[in-house]
Structures are given as C-alpha cells and as structure tokens.
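Many introductory courses stop at the sequence. We go one step further.
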Amino acid sequence: MQTNLSVSTNGSPELPYRAHLQLNTDLNLLAQVLAWFEQFNQPPVPYSVWLECQLALAEGFTNAVRHAHEDQPTDAPIEIEVTVQRQAIEIRIWDVGAEFDLEQRLSNTPPIEDEAVHGRGLDIIKKIATTLSYSHIGQRNCLLIIKNYE
C-alpha cells in the first residue's frame, strides 16, 4: 500500500492535497480502502460530501474488482488517487481491465424496483458525482468522480 499526503506546518493540509493508494485485486481490501479514505474527512470537505464520496469510492472499487478485473490475476493493481481542492474532491480509480462504454452501462441500469438485481453501482456514483467520466489511457482505465461543494 502506498499513500502520500501533503500537510502544512500548521497541521492543516495545503490545498490542493493529494493521496495515492495502490492495492491488489481483492474485495477483502475494501475495508482498508475505506480506512485510508478517512484522512479526507476534514475541512474543507463537508461531512455530507465526504460520506457521499465514501460511498462512490466503495462502489467504484467494488466494480473494479468484480467487473474490470474479473479475469485478471489477484496481483493486478488497482490504484486510487484522491485530490482535495478548495471547492471539489476528485477521485480517480485506475484498473487494467477491459474497456467499457460508461454511457451505455448507465443507460442499461436495472430498475430500482428489482432489489435482487445487482449492477446499480455506476448509477449510484452518477447520482453522487457532479462529474463522472471514464477513459482509457495507455494500458489502464480511469473512472473519474468529481464532487463539487461550496
């Protein structure tokens, strides 16, 4: 696990501040991801925004493990980058799985009435995010979640 956080001498993080985490493909590491994300539960991020972003991160990490890395070895890396700015938090989840069409997946989300159906994670993330995008860069994919706040 790697993590890197810039903190000013007065004890509060300088803006923007960033942290990075790299993990293997293992759903059991979700608790570690969420514990790592605790460091962002501080100003300027409002608590309600932090909670929503925690949920979006959990959904994004779970999707990377279950879907993007479905056919990958367990040592295939998933990287998470978080950047906190004065009015936004950005979460990037990197994987090495096959590409997919984000808009098509979002348009094929199962109806919420069917509680037994999985596959609503991206829809949840979309509802939380101010901006949601997905891109293939080099040999990796990046799910970018941006949540603005004031």
